[in-house]
Amino acid sequence: MGLYIAKRLLAAIPVLFGLTIIVFVIMALIPGDPATAILGSYATPENVAKLNKDLGLDKPMVQQYFIWLGNLFQGDLGRSYTLNRPVLDEVMERFWATLILAGSALVLCSILGLIAGVISAVRQFSWADKLITFIVLIGISTPSFWLGLLLILAFSVQLKWFPVSGMYAIYGGGGPLDLLHHLFLPAVTLAAVATGVIARLTRTAMLEVLRQDYIRTARAKGLSERRVIYRHAFKAALVAVIPVIGIQAGFVLGGAVYIETVFQWPGIGSMLVKAISTRDLLLVQGGVLVVAAAYVLFNLAADVVQTLIDPRLR
Amino acid sequence: MSDQAAVSTGQQPEKRRKKDRKGRPSVLRLLLNNQLATAGLVIFSLIVLVAALAPILPLPDPDATAPADRLQPLFSAGHLLGTDALGRDILSRLIWGARVSLAVGISATLIAAFFGSLIGLLAGYAGGRTDTLLMRGIDMVMAFPYILLALAIVAVLGPGLLNALYAIAVVNVPFFARNIRGIALGLSRREFVDAARLSGKSHAQILFGEVLPNVLPVIIITMSTTIGWMILETAGLSFLGLGAQPPQADLGSMLGEGRKILFTAPHVSIVPGLMIFVLVMSINLLGDGVRDILDPRLKSGSLTRPTARTAVERKSVPATDVRGEDAVLDVRGLKTEFEIGSSVYRAVGGVDLKIRKGECLGLVGESGSGKSVSAMSIMGLVPTPPGRIVGGVAMLGDEDLFSASDERIRQLRGGAVSHVFQDPLSTLHPLYTVGDQLIEAIRAHQPLSHASARQRAAELLATVRIPNPEERLNAYPHELSGGMRQRICIAMALANAADVIIADEPTTALDVTVQAQVLSLLAALRRDHDTGILFITHDFGVVSAICDRVAVMYAGKIVETGTTEEILADPKHPYTGKLIDCVPVLGQPERRLDAIEGRPPVVNALPPGCAFAPRCPRAQPDCLQGEIAMRDFGPERGARCLHPLGEEGSADV
Fold first, then answer.
1. Same domain, yes or no, for B289 and B351?
2. Total structural domains within chain B
3. For residue B141, what is the domain's CATH number?
4. DSSP string, A16-49
5. Of B398, B353, B374, nearest in space to B532 by CA
6. What ipTM was predicted for this assembly?
7. pTM of the full predicted structure?
8. CB–CB of B143 and A223 under 8 A?
């Protein structure tokens, strides 16, 4: 078991390396000369050449990559020219905000999605199933950024139950309760689509499992239907759903970009949007890299959980 | 023979498809599905039509600003949906914006479908290194959170609608590549591709002429399920200000601009959002409909939840007071059918079975003869839908199992009547240890503590001669051999001192030596515990090893009964004779093994008379003239045949 987890951890390393290559290559593909982009089109050729040399851009690509990777290992992601501070500092500060938001959304969508999916499968074709299927369909089709606006209008502006935006109250804020108060709406919005996806998949997985021979065996043993469904079928369905929860981590981390913008949540997503419009590419690079790495780790966690449940994978 | 098999497997799926398109689980659901898909289609077409006609519709200029008219509310004069912060007509902008969003979403889908399918086809068709290389690349791209990758691409290319389109297309390529590669990989190992190769077609010809048409449904399914996403995501990028740039507007950028005045004029952002929602919803409804029709897994109700017990809707109930003197289990007139779509398959058409204490009754027949369905009907283990019991009684002692309550059936299952199934790997739960599964079976019927149930489980394993039982309790099914697993299943069937064990081909999945061990184990257990066994098999070799009496089944009916000796020595029904001829005899290698020609009939449209007649060498015209009654050949000995074996003269015409 420990060995398996160690193996999975090792297998994640090449993936992480792959990420660095892709991120590096994407940034290297930027049309035009970065030095000119930074200095503006009125820069003198001497200044451009000097900056190119300073940035190491006169060296071959492969060498540039390894220099960049070496810096990365030392925690040096470069300096953001718009914020005039190290990229790593800015990214790490904001990463926690994103992790709190995405993490709670992921927990929320897993729990709600699994419950809805199981109810839907067990009461197939009942009004509950139809209602859940309908809500899921709406959830999957709703633009999350629009849903966020609707929720703000309803619960913040009309009902005044939740704050409109931010992570903490500006005056007298702070503390976990204040955080929860601010977190609720963005987390629900972010979880909506993923909940639908997980519910759908859980329903299908449950229906598929319920036709398996071992379910017939469980019934032939004289087990109660409750036990057949919640002990035998659910566990087997979970094995199919967990990797999808891992994939949803990607959608949630990515979707955080919209939600953080809508709710002005101080995470990496809102930072990225700003960085892209100001063309602060080092900041984009750092943000993308950190979030992608987090996604790899989320998937790794999903793998490990799946292994804990399924002895065949050990 | 192999020709025949190829032809018949080639034809069968087609036949099945025709049948299933007509019928799925319930007409209501099908209708509902269709209505939703139809609604989706209507809405989507309407949006597309209006968007396409935008230039000729009497709309105000979407970009004409009118500061005096700014932020008009909904339904104001001249502006049905009001105006935005610059006084532009929202309805007009909405239609023009939908036009842009649709064009971008559809183009992105086509681009992603083209490149993704190409990569998938190549990887799947080429296999080997090309496959590994391409798919590793795809995996790498998929290691990114979807939207993040799109953002990174837009960051590089710079904000703009066209760049957003490229970004969304690129991040969707992996979905197509993966789905199509899987199918293409399977297809390129198929015979028709080999045949095309041998006939000298080029790789390109095979790929686009043979493989592509077969993956087309998958491409369409993937397109219909991703286009909604792509429209959403491009709208999202525009919302963030990274897609459409002013003055050009798509639905997303309208929403993004409106957001700035959310509190003062909510309709400016709500209306375009609603439009995106309706558009994506209609596409998803349509996509689900398309997928339901094209995805084979969703066909023929393979995804309906079976109930805990077979439905009983008896039209005929034989008298229950006539007791078979010493029978523990007495089944009379059992009829079970499957309703699949509009056709009804009468799998079991009036079967009588009687098992005495300690007796082993063999139920013999080819696959598809209805023997398993008969056996599974007894304790209501035939899945409903589509199965249902429509006639007969099953008397366990004085109790009719078909009219017992669900709770009573639960108590009897695994208690008085237990089961052993064919494939011990698929019938044991893969995620629980065999110990857990045994203990569960014991505690479902006996009020024992976990510890004493575990004790009992270990004893049971010892009874079925499993070495180191204590240790084995902690094993998972996949860690055991096939024979070992089947012993576990038998131990489970013994857990609560059953009166009757229903064994459905318990040795078929095992190899011959293990088969012999399991058979002798069952025989010993029967002696020691005086348990009645209903033993289902297609193999007369197995029958001779364990059964006291035999019932031969064909097309849902018992065609011959008798003691094992009588039937083996002197079969009356030609079908029985054929089945016996199929058994190899040790020491007689020169003996001819006759496979029975033809196949058992499909039971939804049985001809009158003897169902075996079309395959029977002794068939006469009168065989097809009407119901053939069981003819007595002695006490508990009978055959449903007009021209039985041993009555020559009438046969040799």
1. no
2. 3
3. 1.10.3720.10
4. HHHHHHHHHHHHHT-SS-HHHHHH-TT--HHHHH
5. B353
6. 0.87
7. 0.83
8. no
